[in-house]
Amino acid sequence: MNSLTIFLRGFIIGLSIAAPVGPIGVLCIRRTLAEGRLNGFLSGLGAATADMLYGAVAAFGLTFITDLLVGQANWLRLVGGVFLLYIGIRTFIAKPAGHAAQASQNGVFGAYISTFFLTITNPMTILSFIAIFAGLRLGESNGDYVSAAFMVLGVFLGSAAWWLGLSFGVGLLREKFTPAWMVWVNRISGLVITTFGMIALFAK
Known about the structure:
The protein is mainly alpha-helical. Helix content is 79%, strand content 0%.
């Protein structure tokens, strides 16, 4: 299998894992509407970075890391769930800005690191990668680290491409949302994110 084919497979895997609408998707949409495309995209890029790391674990066959993460799944779910509740409540009570928000350095970094943390503490992310790579027999690198690297690069760019498209598309609607509409965006987004947090905390 040539490098381009491996890269494209990774790209499709990254895209397919990023695409389902979950708490990160809701957060990305809300931040794009409230704070602009850059914050929305960087929120997604944090998730794409976590996807890349988990993709590397699966692609390079790092079973000892996989076993460690799966073994700590309950603690990861607990930490991620609490953080989701925190973000959900903050989003629910957030007041819409009266003018277009400027992307500060702290705001941009916070957007990136928060979604990275949420994704890296989600046990389902690593389990999804393990299932896909095992099903397609992609985790058997057999020392071919160049192919594994192309796979991981594809995963990252596929995930990043989804978040870029989502933030750009939602950004086209931003000017249509008045402060009154943003109140409801914040409330609905906050409720959805809080619900995901509750599910993470109490799911068996």
